[in-house]
Design a protein that fits this description.
mainly alpha, transcription regulation, Arc Repressor Mutant, subunit A, Four Helix Bundle (Hemerythrin (Met), subunit A), WH_DNA-bd_sf, GntR family transcriptional regulator, 219 residues
């Protein structure tokens, strides 16, 4: 019995962390949010002690600003931060597609399978997670572990930005799928210049979608 209670105490902060982490990811990037410890405890179904442990962890990871004994402040992502993330993605992803073209391994990455899953996916969070899986597969195949680690470090910001992009324009999901297919076509052709162009056009279109005015009445 004691072991079971100990396990529950150990797992509770993880449950609080996952609940709050998901809340952060699904908060539109331009929106700031404050959650009290009580709201987090009620939402996650936990007491305030594991909630506080989760807040400390999220603060150390840079996702929130913790206000002791009160709650968590989730800041908006600034236009500058969004632009910086997209600039970094362009550098990393252009390098990656060039490496994949040179290696001639595009057919082994399962990219078409990921695109097919995106076609059937209606949930915006899962759609963007598949989007990241697509790009991460290319990064993994490129073989540069330093760049891959960096790419993974901006994953959560990409999800928050990506959700905003697909929610603001109804046609954006269809566009993303077409843009992914263009990237795969270039990789299969082993044409680095075409692949660079496809990646650049994809990221530019994403940035335009993020900047587009959001009308919640359409969603």
């Amino acid at each position: 019995m004691t072991s079971s209670r100990d396990d529950q105490r150990t797992l509770a902060p993880d449950r609080a962390y996952r609940w709050l982490h998901q809340t952060i990811l699904t908060t539109p990037r331009e929106q700031e949010l404050f959650l009290t410890e009580t709201e987090i405890a009620e939402g996650s179904g936990l007491s305030r002690t594991p909630v506080r442990e989760a807040l400390l962890r999220l603060e150390s990871e840079g996702f929130i600003k913790r206000i002791p004994h009160k709650g968590a402040y989730i800041p908006a992502m600034t236009d500058r931060e969004v632009a910086d993330v997209m600039d970094a993605r362009l550098v990393v992803e252009e390098h990656a597609v060039g490496r994949v073209c040179a290696a001639g391994i595009a057919g082994d990455l399962g990219l078409d399978t990921l695109i097919a899953k995106q076609v059937d996916e209606t949930d915006p969070v899962k759609f963007i997670e598949l989007d990241l899986a697509f790009h991460t597969a290319i990064l993994e195949a490129a073989g540069n572990t330093v760049l891959l680690d960096f790419y993974r470090s901006i994953r959560d910001r990409q999800i928050r930005m990506g959700i905003r992009a697909v929610m603001v324009l109804e046609q954006r999901r269809t566009q993303v799928i077409a843009e992914h297919r263009a990237i795969v076509e270039a990789l299969l052709a082993k044409d680095p210049e075409q692949a660079h162009d496809a990646v650049r056009l994809h990221l530019e279109a994403t940035l335009r979608s993020i900047a587009h005015p959001f009308n919640p009445r359409n969603h």
